[in-house]
Amino acid sequence: MSSCPSGNNQQSASLLWTADSSFLNGVSHHKQITMGVLLEYEHDYQYHDHDNDSNDSAYDEDYFGDLHTVCDKQEVRSFAGVFLPVIYTLALVLGLAGNSLVVFIYLSHKRLRTLTDVFILNLAFADLLLLFTLPFWAADAVNGWQIGTAACKITSALYTTNFSCSMLLLSCISIDRYRALAKGSAHTPARNNSRKHRIIMCLVVWGIAIVLGLPDMVFYTVRVQHSSERYTCRAVYPHSMARAAKATLEILEVSLSFILPFLVMMFCYCRVGVALSQAATAGVHGGRRWRAFRVLIAVVGVFLLTQLPYNVVKLIKTLDVIYILVTECDVSKNLDLANQITESLALTHCCLNPVLYVFIGSSFKMHIIKLAKHWSQTGRGYRHGNEQPAIEISLKSATQTHTNSSSGNEDTSTFTI
Amino acid sequence: MRIPVFLLFLVFTMCSIQLVPAMPAIPEFCCINFIDFPIPANKIVSAVITPSRCSSKGIMVTTPRTQFCVKPDEDWIKPIMEKQYKR
């Protein structure tokens, strides 16, 4: 305690020495330490006010710039208010169309023959549930959160649960594909394909995802923003939670939602790729092998393209929490902008999953073609407008695959009718 | 046989970890640089802790003319914050 007053005196003294000599009188009042300190504070602040009124513009600017320490992020919020609703609307329309078509085809026509089919169906459900939360976040970005704390917690938990579930299912699909290839000759999957086994697998995956969503139930709540008097749904950590704990959470999030799925996919699909290369020497048809390679490259490539930028930005922000890397307000705002953009890019993965895992598969294309023929022959108009792009995608793929095939042309003519 | 072992590892790893991923709200203001001098108590209009999603923890002090960022561990700001919480 004894050192504090002298420290403050030194600071005040140094400030006074840089200014008019008339303020030096304040330093001489040492009769009582408490009163002296208060008097110095008064002089200190009066000096600032006086300086604002003076014509010393050079010093005034230095003074003002140096003391403007609050980093206001209104610009970032304004950008989010315009950018996020547009992105969320596009993701919602495309994602609903693709995933709904997957669910419809699987439940009405296609039998779940393999474990991968079960995972793909669950993936479509998870993506649909994730997409349903987007309108709430878009409204939050524009008008703030107006539907209460319970809805805030539920929406946040739903988002996290389904995002985690999506990543887990991608890992399971790659594992199952690798396992199917490794045991292709020995047809033992009778046990693995049992109904009970599939149910257990799905329960495990969804159970893990729900557990990962529980922290949002705890931490997310509605708070009023100080400057705009607007409510917002956000994570509020207890004051007792240390900086290291927050950073650890972020690092584990990056590890479990990106690094782990990526390593699993790389391991399994590299093994599949090696097996395909070996199949070349065995005389397997080149076109079919090349198409399988293309599927693998597309799956891993899109995963990296959508998830890597977001996790890099998140890692940078985590390092900033630990080491306080950011020392400029503009850098901090640009980091927030980058986070908004890359997170929106990461969201597009749930729109691309139907294309990556279903529509480029040959069996699913055949089902779509049969379905389209059935509809066109019976004259029913059940097809929804949003489903048209998906069918067109499939048609183009079919056309590219069977360029010289007369049956391809025949299918094309059927679609045009 | 591989899949159950792998999922068992996943269960064990993830159940023992608490994660908080979700759509982050944008902090309305943050503190990056801080003042190194005290502000008289009678000049302080309000003192607010920065949102928890800011990388640095700080206190935004509002005076009649402007706003300052103060480090929470400054001795002179602690009694002001304590008084704030009692209200």
Automatic annotation (TrEMBL), chain A:
InterPro entries: ACKR4, CCR1-9-like, Chemokine_rcpt, GPCR_Rhodpsn, GPCR_Rhodpsn_7TM. Residues 98-357 form the G-protein coupled receptors family 1 profile domain. It is found in: Cell membrane. Residues 398-417 are annotated as: Disordered. GO terms for biological process: calcium-mediated signaling; cell chemotaxis; immune response; positive regulation of cytosolic calcium ion concentration. The keyword Cytoplasm does not apply. CDD domains: 7tmA_ACKR4_CCR11. Keywords: Cell membrane, G-protein coupled receptor, Glycoprotein, Membrane, Receptor, Transducer, Transmembrane, Transmembrane helix. It comes from the Eukaryota. GO terms for cellular component: external side of plasma membrane. This is Atypical chemokine receptor 4b. It comes from Danio rerio.
From TrEMBL, chain B:
Coiled coil: none annotated. One of its GO terms (cellular component) is extracellular space. SUPFAM superfamilies: Interleukin 8-like chemokines. GO terms for biological process: axon guidance; immune response; induction of positive chemotaxis; positive regulation of cell migration. It holds the Pfam family IL8. PANTHER family: SMALL INDUCIBLE CYTOKINE A (PTHR12015), STROMAL CELL-DERIVED FACTOR 1 (PTHR12015:SF193). This is Chemokine (C-C motif) ligand 39, duplicate 2. It comes from Danio rerio (Zebrafish). The lineage of its organism: Eukaryota, Metazoa, Chordata, Craniata, Vertebrata.
